[in-house]
Amino acid sequence: MHQKLLSLLKSHGHLPRGRGRVTGVIALALSVLCLLAALAFHYPSWLTTPELRARYDVDTLRQIMLIAMVAAAVLATWNSILGRSRWLAAWSVAALVATWLLGGSDIRVDDIDAGAPYLGLDWLILGLLGTATVFITIEKLIPFRTQPVFRESWQLDLAYFAVNHLLIGLSLLASNHALVALGLDVREPNWVMALPLWAAILLAVLVADLCQYWVHRALHQVPWLWRVHAIHHSVETMDWLAGSRLHVIETLIVRLSVLIPLYACGFSTQAIDGYIVIVGFHAVFNHANVSVNIGWLRYVIVTPNFHHWHHGSERAAIDRNYAAHFAFLDYLFGTAVRSERAWPDQYGVVGETVPRGFWGQLLYPLRSRARTGEKQR
Ligand SMILES: [Zn+2]
Ligand SMILES: [Zn+2]
């Protein structure tokens, strides 16, 4: 019967080839989110963030989950009837069945052990939904290049988004422990603590970028550190998700070398939280496929154009534009890109072959130079 419907629709030109991928991905995303929500209901102390947990209304979450399950089921069924993106539909149905077996939207909430160590799965999901919504919208409104949302290697960068997002909590915890161990925790009141919040946040971003600038230069110049950082430079299509491609060692090195000095200077938790929100937005924005014109301010603030040049694979772009927030640091230290052209043509690593998969990239800095065939930069 559905074959008939299919040929009828095809003959009327309602079903161009290749359609159904977007609805297929939406159905899969919704059903995976439902499955993750069901797991979070079962293991709240392990999978949810205590600060966020206090704000949830369980009944509203159940209703949202039910709507998402129905929407995913309708889209997956629709696509399989039309014979489009069938493997996506099959995975969506598998995730929905698993959610249903766990209890569906009626699932009871298991007991919460407030002191248990946790993996902020809810923080990751909210972060992903928020970031994707904001940046896909910006990229559609003011794009630099015409390119699809689901471009080459998006799955790899999504995996990095998840891993690195979950590492933020660990970095904060590790830097607090390191601070105490190093005897750098500030106990006496100082002038940084007396600053109004907006000034403290601005100064925190400047201090963080100064630290980050020199660490970034070391990542380019110290051979072993370069092999860690080469993973980030292996990106060949720039967009909001591309900046997530960071080796876990790099995430920890950069976060710790920024957070420890910030805590040691005596910045308040609110000022550091403000900095974390700004770095979260700015780091994603710098890689985004957008073109913004802020006039002379581009010599002060890092724009996507400035950071796209950092990723450029042509000679003028190599080891240039290290700053993450304040472009003037590169002009001050003599490392700003000078080029006749407005944007680089191509991105990526020159002179060596970085593996394309997550595990290959994870092991890349640990493998010997000879085996990876690295040439001298
Ligand atoms: Zn770099
Ligand atoms: Zn980058």
Binned strand content: under 5%
Distance, first to last CA: 62 Å
Average pLDDT level: 86
Largest sheet geometry: none
Radius of gyration: 23 Å
Which kinds of small molecule does this entry bind, naming each only once? Answer: zinc ion
What does this structure look like?
The protein is mostly helical. It has two domains: 2-119; 154-372, no CATH class. The protein has helices at 2-11, 21-42, 44-47, 50-53, 58-81, 86-102, 121-141, 154-181, 191-194, 197-221, 223-233, 248-265, 269-287, 304-310, 328-332, 358-363, 369-372. The longest helix is centred in the middle third of the chain and has 28 residues, at 154-181. The chain is globular, with a radius of gyration of 23 Å. It starts with a helix and ends in a 5-residue tail after the last helix. Bound molecules: zinc ion (2 copies). One zinc ion is lined by residues 232, 243, 287, 307, 310-311.
Summary, kept brief:
With about 375 residues, this protein is mainly α. It has 17 helices and no strands. It is globular, with a radius of gyration of 23 Å.
Describe the SSE topology.
Blueprint: H1 2-11, H2 21-42, H3 44-47, H4 50-53, H5 58-81, H6 86-102, H7 121-141, H8 154-181, H9 191-194, H10 197-221, H11 223-233, H12 248-265, H13 269-287, H14 304-310, H15 328-332, H16 358-363, H17 369-372
Helix pairs in contact: 2-5, 2-6, 5-6, 7-8, 8-12, 10-11, 10-12, 10-13
The structure holds zinc ion (ZN) (2 copies).
